[in-house]
Amino acid sequence: MFRKYFLREAKSANRDSLAFSFLLINALSWFFMTSNILNTLLTDLGGAFSQTIIVMLSYYFAIVCSSLFGALLSSRMQRRSLFSWWTVFGIVASLLPFLVVADSVEALAIISFWFGFSFGFGMPSCLAYFADGTTFENRGGLAGLIFFLTGGSAFVFTVFNLLADSSSSALLYMAIWRGLSLSIFRLTHLQTIEVKRSEHTSFRLIVSRPFLFYFIPYLMFSLVDSFEKTYLRFYIQASFGSGFFEFNQLAETMIGAISAIVIGIVADFVGRKRVIVYGFVSLGLAYAMVGLSPLMGTLWYFYTVIDGIAWGIFFVMFTFLIWGDLSPPGSFRERFYVLGSMPFFFSKIVEVILLPYTQELPQESAYAAFSLAAFFLFLAVVPLMYAPETLPEKQMRERELKGYVEKAKKIAEKRT
Q1: Is 42 helix (H, G, I), strand (E, B) or coil?
Q2: Which of 67, 112, 185, 412 has the fewest Cβ atoms nearer than 10 Å?
Q3: CATH number assigned to the domain with residue range 208-416, chosen from the 4 options 1.20.1250.20, 3.90.220.20, 1.10.10.10, 2.10.109.10
Q4: CATH fold match for the domains 8-136+156-192 and 208-416
Q5: What is the per-residue pLDDT across 332-355, written as a single tens digit (0 to 9) for each?
Q6: Contact indicator for 150, 28 with CB cutoff of 8 Å
Q7: Residue 390 CA from chain centroid, whole number
Q8: What is the DSSP string of 85-129?
Q9: Domain ranges for the chain
Q10: d(Cα 19, Cα 3) in Å, to the nearest integer?
C-alpha cells in the first residue's frame, strides 16, 4: 500500500507541491532552530527562571500576535509579496544577534520577539498554500513527509550547533537556510500561489460546531502536555538521571518524525477522526501505566514510544490536516489555521509560566499527576465522538473498493 502510494504521489508531484513543501520544511525547521538558539543564549546569559520567562514569553507572544496580523493582512496583500517579506524578516532575525549583543535580558527579549514575529507572520499563509495545493487524497501523506524532513533538518542543525565553536556559526547557518526560501520566488513562477477569494470569512464564522469538536480536544491535550512535560523534566532527571531524560527526548523526536509518514498515509485511507482518537486513547493508556508505577524504568520506555507516536499524530493532524479539511478553498484558510494553532502556542506560554513551580512538586505527586493526565486525555475523546469525519466518505469508499479490486486481481492471477 505504502509503495504504491508514494509512486503515485511522486508521479503527480509538480513544481507547486515541491515549492510549498520546501517552504514548510524550511519555516518549521527554522522555528526549532530559533528555539534551540534562544536556549543557548539563555544559558550564556545565566539561565535564571525570571530571564527564561521574560525571553520565552516574548517569543511565543510575538508568534501569536504576528500570526493574527499576517492572517488579517493576507486579505489585502498578495501571497507572493507576503512570502517574500516573511523570508526577509527571517533572514534579518537570524542576523540580529550580530547587531544586538545579547548581554542583558532586555536585549535577548528583543531578539526573541523578532524571532517569533519572523516565524508567525507568514506561517498561516504558508499552511493555507499547502491546503490549496493538495487534495484530500494526498494531504496526509505529504504532511507526514514534511514533518519527517522537518525533524531531520532540525536534527542536523542541533548536531551542527553542538559541534560549532560559538552560536555565531549557527546563526549564520540559520540565515542561509532561511534565505533559500527567497530563491523559490526568484527562480520559479508558481501558478497556485494566489487564490481567488470567494467570500469574506470572519473569525466568528470560523468557530462552528465541527471546528470546536476538534479544537477542544486539541486544547485539552496541549494544556495537559504543557503541565506534564514541565513536571516530567524534573521528575525523570531526579529519578533516573539527566542521561535518561536526554535519551527520552531524542527517542521521542525520532519516533514522532518516523511515525508521521505512516500516520499521514493511514489518515488518507481510514480518515482523520479515527487516527486522532487512537492517539488520545494510546497516550492516555501510557500515562495510566506510568501512573501505576512511576519508578519502573521499563514502563518509561513504553511511554517514550507511545508519546512519540502520539506527538506525530497530533502534529500532523492539528498542524496540517484538520483545519485545511474544514476550510473551503478561497475562504481565507489562513484564519482557520491561526485559530487552530492557538492551543499549541498557548500551551507553550503556560509551560513557561509553570516552569518554576513544577520543580517544587514532590516526587510522590507523580502518581496523581500521571493519573490525572490519563483521565483528561480520555475525557478529551468525548467531543471527538460528535465531530464529523473531515475526509469525505466518498474518498474512503473509493479507496476501499480499489483495495478489494486489487486483492481480487491477485487471487485471480494466483489461480491462473
Answers
A1: helix
A2: 412
A3: 1.20.1250.20
A4: yes
A5: 889 899 999 999 999 988 888 887
A6: yes
A7: 19
A8: HHHHHHHHHHHHHHHS---SHHHHHHHHHHHHHHHHTTHHHHHHH
A9: 8-136+156-192, 208-416
A10: 23
Instruction: State which fold the 8-136+156-192 domain adopts.
Output: Growth Hormone; Chain: A; (1.20.1250)
What are the C-alpha distances in Å from 42 to residues 56, 103, 104, 114, 358? 10, 10, 10, 16, 20
* Contact present, 291 and 374 (Cβ < 8 Å): yes
Q: Residue 6: what pLDDT?
A: 47
CA distance 171 to 95: 7
Put residue 118 in one of left, alpha, beta given phi > 0 → left and psi -120 to 50 → alpha.
Answer: alpha
**Which DSSP helix (H) or strand (E) runs through 275?**
helix 272-292
Work out the angle between the directed axes of helices 105-120 and 79-99 (0-180°, nearest 10). 160
Cell of 221: 491535550
Q: What is the 3-state secondary structure (H, E, C) of 149-188?
A: HHHHHHHHHHHHHHHCCCHHHHHHHHHHHHHHHHHHHHHC
Distance CA 366, CA 150 (A): 33
Q: Look-up: residue for cell 492551543?
A: 343
The alpha carbons of the chain give a radius of gyration, in whole angstroms, of: 22
Give the type of residue at 309: I
pLDDT of residue 199: 56
Give the cell for residue 280. 488520545
Q: What is the mean predicted confidence (pLDDT) over 129-155?
A: 87
**Average pLDDT taken over every residue of the chain:** 83
* Lowest mean pLDDT across 38-42, 163-167, 300-304, 412-416: 412-416
Tell the burial category of 371 from Cβ atoms under 10 Å away from its Cβ (0-12, 13-18, 19+).
middle
- Are residues 142 and 264 in contact, defined by beta-carbon separation less than 8 angstroms? yes
Q: What is the pLDDT of residues 291-328, one digit of tens each?
A: 888 888 788 889 999 999 998 999 999 999 999 999 88
Is-contact 395 137, C-beta < 8 A? yes
First-residue to last-residue Cα distance in the chain? 24
Tell me how far the alpha carbon of residue 242 is from its chain's centroid.
26
State the helix-helix crossing angle for 105-120 and 15-45, rounded to 10 degrees: 170
The grid coordinates listed for 9 are 504521489
Instruction: Say which residue the cell 540559520 belongs to.
Output: 174
State which amino acid sits at residue 29: S
